[in-house]
Amino acid sequence: MQSEFLFSEFQTELLPEVINIVIFISPILLAVILAGTLWTLWIRYIQARFYASLKYACLELRLPKETFKSPKAMELVLTALHNTSDGGWTAKFWKGEYRPYYSLEIVSVEGHVKFYIWGEDRRKLGVMNALYAQFPGIEIYDGPDYTTGTHFDPKTMKLWAAEFAYTKDAAYPLKTYVDYGLDKDPKEEFKIDPLAPLVEFFGSAGANEQMWLQLIVRAHKGEQKKPGHLFKKYDAWRAGGEKLMDTIMLRDPKTKVQSVGAKWVKGTPHIPVKTNAYEDELVVAIQRSLSKIPFDVGIRAMYISKKDTFNTPFGIGGFISSMKQFSTEHLNGLRPNGEKWIVQFDEPWKDYKDMRRNRISAEAIEAFKRRSFFRPPFESEPLVMNVEELATLYHFPGSVVASPSFERVPSKKAEAPGNLPI
After folding, report:
1. SS3 38
2. Which of 220, 260, 177 is nearest to 84 (CA)?
3. Positive or negative torsion for Cα 274, 277, 279, 283
4. In sequence order, what E strands does 101-204 have?
5. Which of 154, 174, 178, 150 is nearest to 164 (CA)?
6. pTM here?
7. Who has greater pLDDT, 93 or 231?
8. CA distance linking residue 180 with residue 360, whole number of Å
9. CATH T-level fold of 57-220+293-409
10. What mean pLDDT, rounded, does the chain reach?
């Protein structure tokens, strides 16, 4: 009887009040939702308009015949491209300006391997100056974009495309050129360059085959929303690295004091704890990683071929195995992201007459041409890499890479002496 009375009271007194409250606040909620949607559409519109208003340059880099510098030189070049500015309020929310980004590219067209840097035309002089400063013998050509002549034809072409993701959490760093000893500038015959397998793989492409690798980069700002806070932001990548070190070293995350057993040790936070060799190496790698400037990075790979020459074990397997040079079991690694671009439908009933494959293939080529990664229409979640990791993935290999298809400047060029007779 009591429950019936309470239910009757709810219907007669409380329910009408609840309905009135909902009716009263519904226009406000609707206005908030509509404003949020319109704001998102506005930002997309002005950024697309800003993108279309700019000119872009695709710089072809021809390397000297002999390159003795370590990837540290490329690290300095990339540091010069690190720009965290999104512009002021007017530039950002009225003009649509956004943080500058670049595409570092290695390309093979029928075995001819070339390096490119793509970016805004107004910023190319800064890129060129940074390159000339570190590589005096380099030749830079502001030529046509190599992607413009490629159009997907499902009748004659076949392709595989993928974006790469980490095998572990972003707090774990990649194996870098420092781990390979290249920071010590060893003699060419003793160098072990992790980029060499990729360049050799690109150089082995045959007729009617192309390999494209794009590293689309911009400065990392670390503006993720902090869990449990509505407006507070933090750098999830840096916080993840600090947390991982605290876990391995048995440190109090607040005081950074290490523990022995269940008791906290007072004093220096550098009291040694019992860790194995892998954990010691990991801690050193994380500390070195967090000490260098970070980038947001999108890694895209594409293998294009005529249908009759498409070689799955060579093209797809070669890409995946070449990227494993930057991976270890106790650090991080790179793997194809199964949720993006991979065009593989083994069973015929999954893709009637290759309709899905053809649509995804056309989209993949369009994404590569636009270098669209951080914004629509081909927006993806970036990886966070420090400049050392990025320089490991993109640098100029020395003469240890002797592939005949790897184009270099045949000889050094210099100005004529000024005392020649007229």
Report:
1. helix
2. 220
3. positive
4. 101-109, 112-120, 139-143, 157-166
5. 174
6. 0.84
7. 93
8. 37
9. Vanillyl-alcohol Oxidase; Chain A, domain 3 (3.40.462)
10. 83
